[in-house]
Amino acid sequence: NSCECQSPEDIVFVSAVCTALAKGREGGFKNYLADEVLLSVSKAVLDRTGIDPFLIQDITVGNVTGKGGLAIPSRMAVPGAGFPETTSASTFDEINNLINDVDVYEINKAFASQALYTERVLSIHREKVNLNGGAIEISHLLGCTGASQVATLCSLLNRQVKKVSVTSMCIGSSMGMAAAWEKE
């Protein structure tokens, strides 16, 4: 989606902060809640950019299709990072596209039957799913499926001049997560 500024003084600021990765159960973020990680990332963005937090009117965290995906953690992290209480923390909850408008799907298939089931239930065209093979074919690194999917999708979107993609994966205990990605 394009951003339409309300006035010439409006600024859209995008920042990414890389975080350290760790092996298995050795450190990393396994003992942190999402709002704690977002708090550190938000503080790092403020520190690196030098932006006055009182000039920020809205913060968007993620692009998650599941209802309330990051809404609560982002609402908890924003004030803790130093943004004023009046700064809203938005989260996108809907893909806003029909299934057929999605160009590429990366469906985690730790179990091949799950990817096939998802294709059938959602009536997704097979030629849009796991174009480079699924998670097992690429490698099914414990805790790295999302990173693998996102890297795969970014590459596919650029090489094939595609715009909208969706990742989905199992996260254990009969739960799952999906995220929509749109190339600007």
UniProtKB/TrEMBL annotation:
Superkingdom of origin: Eukaryota
This protein's GO CC annotations: peroxisome
Species of provenance: Rhizopus stolonifer (Rhizopus nigricans)
Molecular function terms from GO: acetyl-CoA C-acyltransferase activity
InterPro entries according to UniProt: Thiolase-like (IPR016039), Thiolase-like_sf_Thiolase (IPR050215), Thiolase_C (IPR020617)
GO biological process: fatty acid beta-oxidation; phenylacetate catabolic process
Alphabetical UniProt keywords: Fatty acid metabolism, Lipid metabolism
Keyword match Oxidoreductase: no
Alphabetical list of Pfam families matching this protein: Thiolase_C
Thiolase C-terminal domain mapped to chain residues: 89-181
Presence of the UniProt keyword Protein biosynthesis in the record: no
Name of the protein this chain belongs to: 3-ketoacyl-CoA thiolase with broad chain length specificity
